[in-house]
Amino acid sequence: MLKLLSYLRPYWVASLLAPLLMVLEVSMDLMQPRLMASIVDQGVMQGDLAHVGRSGLLMLLCALLGLVGGVGCTVYSSKAAVAFSSDLRRDLFAATQAFSFGNLERIGTASLITRLGSDVAQLQQFVMMLLRVFVRAPLLVLGSMAMAVGISPALALILLAVVPPLFGVLYLLIRWSVPLFAQVQQKLDAVNLVLRENLAGIRVVKAFVGGERERQRFDAANADYAGAAIRAWHIVTLNVPLLTFALNCAIVAVLWFGGLRVEAGSLSAGELVAFINYATMILSSLTSIGMLLMNYSRARVAAERVNAVFAERPEIVAPAQPQQPELQAVAERGCGPEICFDRVTFRYPGALRPALDALTLTVPAGATVALFGSVGAGKSALLGLVPRFYDADEGALRLAGMDLRRLDPAWLRGQIGYVQQETVLFSGSVRDNIRYASPAADAAAVEAAARAAQAHDFILRLPQGYDTVLGQRGADLSGGQRQRLAIARALLPRPPILILDDATSAVDLATEARILGGIKALLPQATCLMVAQRAAAALAADFVVVLEQGRILAQGSHAGLMSTSAAYREIHRGQAALEKVFHD
């Protein structure tokens, strides 16, 4: 928690002014009962209306000064707390951007969303209470107790007998609530996971009429969350009634014994009124302290979850002294480097068998290689190692003879145009989506990339052409249109390495052939790795690699493999039969 509170350091002025202004408000509040006692004893009881007027004006002045202090404290505490949460959320988001896929899978995207949203908001609320209640409540308790002792030490013993045990009760409630609130946040992660999966797969849900099943999944997760929250808040809600009951009993005792002392003449009526006001202040302050401590128990859980993200070390980091001068020179000439897989073994986290098993493959500089294979053959795993989304468990992967681990991942990915299986577009215009990797690209470069990807014509048919604003994830475009925009986005920076992971699966054969031709014309010297299932890709490639269970089953030209590889022939026969069915 203390580590996170260091985020308040840039806002030390607001963080200091807030409690100072709260001290002003508390001081004015502590004066009010004394002034009221003076009005009762010296004004009302003595019939001195002038004294009542003077003391009343003084009470009004104190109230106005207290208002200034309270409003000022609220303004500065809000400013500091919101700035604190904004900076914390920014750094938390930046930390996630450095994570590898392994880090993201270990924490979970749904959990990260909760930590960036709910957990940071909980910490913001705690900081705001810290700058206000943490100052106000203890000062009011101590100040009211001191004033009460000054009025009547004997009656103050009643309050002293009640207050310390109540702090013990608060301590026990906190001990019980912290683990319960940890469960609440975990259950909220589960709710966010179900919600995220449902929204991401809403088309599938509707296509298979899975709404009722999804509602049942959500209801189950939501019920678990609600149950955990109710158990936690049962503990929290014990705070106020217990404190109220105990201190009301104390006030009743004060009234009883105070009345006896007034009757005996050892205590004035005004002093009794003031004493009761101070006792009420203690009651309200202890209630506020209880809520602050309960809020602390939630904030402590949130802080642990946020710190866990900061403590997570990215699995893939830049070396202390990146060495890429040879590759830099190659990239600047627009030439793709040689890519060499040397007995590479890779297993996804938690997988039972390796996705790649001692695979050896050399892709010559500037060559285009088509990867074929059944589902689970290791095609996407092979492509994912090149930009270092993952690192190989065994073996080495080299670019232009240099081990990938000696390269800065950010620099490396800047040399790669990558189109993944699942097309991802962002909210914004068509132009902005194509320029995602090259924000400064001019209109001519954007159009050239779109033409190569066979996207230019359909873009012109959109309502505002390149300035048409897309819906979320490009939902208002067809699958083939989204794929072509993703290809244009990858082509725009003119990368020396191009990776296409089944990037033309949603377009027809003729369009696929034109796309591959456009890519070759735009990037004639790029090294290209592509996963494909159709003959057009094989014919456009310099050679073809057939994968099976993470191993190379066969490699060679399309014509050669059609005559020598039964597995390759079977893939193409199946694809041809499927295309015939859809054509007929």
From TrEMBL:
This is ATP-binding cassette subfamily B protein. PROSITE patterns: ABC_TM1F, ABC_TRANSPORTER_1, ABC_TRANSPORTER_2. SMART domains: AAA (SM00382). It is a multi-pass membrane protein. It holds the Pfam family ABC_tran. Residues 16-298 form the ABC transmembrane type-1 domain. One of its GO terms (biological process) is lipid transport. It comes from the Bacteria. Keywords: ATP-binding, Cell membrane, Lipid transport, Membrane, Nucleotide-binding, Transmembrane, Transmembrane helix, Transport. Its main location: membrane. Residues 339-574 form the ABC transporter domain. It is found in: Cell membrane. PANTHER family: ATP-BINDING CASSETTE SUB-FAMILY B MEMBER 10, MITOCHONDRIAL, ATP-DEPENDENT PERMEASE MDL1, MITOCHONDRIAL.
